[in-house]
Amino acid sequence: MKAAPALAACVAAAALLLPLPWLSVAPNRLLPGEPLSALAALGWLVAPPCLLLGLPALDRVPPTVAAALALAAALLLLVLTGGAAAERLQGLPPAARAGLGIGLWLALVAALVLAAIRMQPLALATRALLVAAALAALLAAASSGAFDALSLAVEYRNRADAVQAALLRHVALATAALLLALLVAAPLAWAGFRHPRLAGPVGAVFAGVQVVPGLALFALLIPLLAALLHAVPALRDLGLAAIGPAPAVIATAAYLTLPLWRGLSAGLAAADPAAVAAAHAIGMGEARITREVRLPLALPVFAAGLRVALVQAIGLVTLGGLVGAGGLGALVFEGLAQFATDLMLLGAIPIVLLALLADGLVRSAETRLAVAA
Amino acid sequence: MRGLPPLLLAAALALLAAPFGARLLAQALGADAEPFPADRLAGLALTHAGLALAGVLPAALLGMGLGIAVTRRAGRGLRPAADAFAAAAQAVPPVVVVALAVPAFGFGLWPTAFALLLYGLMPVLRATVAGLESVPPDIRAAAVAIGLPPSRVLSEVEWPLAWPVVLDGLRIALVLGVATAAVGALAGATTLGTPIVLGLQNQNQVLVVQGAAATAALAFAAEGLLLMATGRRAGDAA
Question: Which residue of B has its CA nearest to A224?
């Protein structure tokens, strides 16, 4: 038995068997509820998921089966908890909510980590197939009403339109920030490649931005943009405003310049000097060398920098909720202001899933580019 | 004097955070409002520093412990998992961790301390692993050959050699912690982020400038002081 899968399985089992809060029944969406442990909430039904989580930790179980079992365990935990919640809510007034406790989250994360570890040796297509199958099963369970009694599902039903709009807005803001950062980082990386003396100061400035606290930079951009608009009113006609998407996109882009610039610079330097010399020798011009030798060799390294920047963009745009930009951050901060935990989770969970999805997509593109190069 | 530039920057930012400085800047930008009193700002700076330490100290202990564990023979299998965990913890921004942690820990200091713990883990873990791996194998072999037990090989040979690199990681973690503790203001902790959030809610840009400048000043001051302290130590050893 390998150490990492065994550890994940042990964490999941501990979350199921120790008296951690698993489910809590509260009179409404704001008050804290009466916590129940997994054993109290599910009874003997904790046994099947425990078994499903133990098998994937064994080396003898082949990776495909192990990953499928771990994913099935995660789904089963959710379905069983949804059923237990529906049972507990019977006869209570409609405002009553059945919230998920830290034990369930811990077990779910441990099960997913276990699946991710066992999936590692599998081919990309097999992994994608497993994840797609798990998502399809999750959606099927959701549409059959298995989770209807859970507080998070109730909150989502009440706000489905707002959540979907916030999700799209979040993606749009992150994409805009990424493009803006590329617009700044790409020319500077090229200049630093051509004139290496420039690279030091540019890198120092980009690294310096990272030390500025995120909350401070987002907030400071409002007075700075207001002053700029005051001085150059013509910018207002271009649709720029001191509150809204502008400060969020600019502040996020400021943090993305470092990983992008690093990836671009390292990529440009990635071409073997011997390959460049050989290209010179056969009479290629500079432009053609860049196009046909440097860029193909640089692409996998670019992609790695792009992945880091994209994941950071999705996370950082969250703070845009504070400066009126909307996005999933707005839901998070509304939840924090109302003390409504479900609303916070409704904003925060999609952010994490979005970041994981972006990471996985760019990672698969990276491996494909590396193979092509 | 590697520490001097950050300390000078910290002093300049502290002047900007002081009520008269923030007011001057806000007036220059075309805004005017009541500034936050200096004594309350100093009190917030203290709780801010305390919160940063409460998050970074456990991150330091956990990071060093994990770093030592995954470089031992028995713990080598955990290395990829520990790396992946630390990288994931670093990829999720603290504000999202705070939002995920509030339902579990409630409002107050703990969600932010937890977020800082996760955020500070990777720099410490990476530095510990890098420091221990930079110990030349023949030195380790010599220590084993003269009959030292594994615990003393670690405490008397590997750890002293790795320490300067580990110290660098600890400094980075603490500076990151001080800079990010401001998000605690969103989850009910009183930090230097509190004036920022108050300023955003009341459209008082003087408060925003004060909170932002004070947070950055504290982060740069931590960086400068730690650089000075660790720089002197490295000089002593040489």
Answer: B29
- Indicate the residue type of A95: A
Q: Exposed, middle or buried by CB within 10 Å (0-12, 13-18, 19+), for B189?
A: buried
- ipTM of this predicted complex? 0.79
Residues A21, A40: Cα–Cα separation, whole Å: 10
Among the partner residues B107, B187, B196, nearest to A219 by beta-carbon distance: B196
Say if residue A130 is in the same domain as residue A231.
no
Indicate the number of domains in chain A. Answer: 2
Q: How many beta-carbon pairs under 8 angstroms link A with B?
A: 134
Q: For residues A164 and A19, which has the higher predicted lDDT (pLDDT)?
A: A164
Q: How confident is the model at residue B237 (pLDDT cuts 50, 70, 90)?
A: very low
Spatial separation of the C-alpha atoms in residues A306 and B213, rounded to whole Å: 30
Separation of alpha carbons A246 and A222, rounded Å: 9
Strands (E), chain A: 23-26, 34-36, 97-100
Residues in chain B within 8 Å Cβ distance of A213: 179-180, 182, 193, 212, 215-216, 219
Q: Which domain holds residue A129?
A: 3-150
CATH of the domain at A223: 1.10.3720.10
Contacts of B191 in chain A (CB under 8 A): none
pTM attached to this predicted model:
0.85
pLDDT digits (tens, 9 = 90+) for B130-142: 999 888 989 888 9
A241 lies in the same domain as A131:
no
Residues of A in contact with B111 (CB under 8 A): none
